[in-house]
Amino acid sequence: MTSKDDESTLDDPGAVLRLIEREQGNTMRHVIPDPRLMYWPWGLTWLISFGLSFLRFGPGGRTLVAMPTWVPLLALTGLMIAAGIFTGIVGARSGRDISGPSSRQGLMYGISWSAGFTSLAVIFGRVSEFVPQTSRGLLWGGGMVALVGVLYMAGSAIWDERDMFVLGAWISVVNVIGVLWGPGWHALVLAVAGGGGLLVAGLVGWLRRR
Length: 210
Description:
By secondary structure, the protein is mainly alpha-helical. It has helices spanning 4-10, 13-31, 35-56, 70-95, 101-127, 133-159, 162-181, 185-209.
């Protein structure tokens, strides 16, 4: 049976539209992961790992904080693996109720990330020995971050997400500025502006989601 309140609502086209919009919003919040859970792990990864790299391999080859040379690389590798596993679980849980084209798009997009990073790792591994020691970190960091920026912008085209495009463009610009400044400064720029940008993106996305 239909209550009088329901009948009055159905008689009001504006109320019906508001009801539809509210339910659409509830559905989107259910199937789309919390932006904080997707961006903050990566923001902290960049902030910590590139911050350690700057402290150990500062501008002009200076060591600002004495630590073993393997610490920044170990931190970057470990934190990237942890962030990847965490965000992968969050994304899988949010997308378990989705089927059809959206599900395939998400799968192909995820495979694109893996394929891109694997390809660059193989290429850089082959050419690193021909690059001066002081520029190898710039090669790896600049190349990988360039890929991240492009993939974020490509993802924005897939899901029509303007915020994702802005984030990808920001990361790309920050990366170029850091590369132009040179070794040491590149790590600092990525830690502060890159990692900070990811943290801000997560916060802004969460606020808009509310």
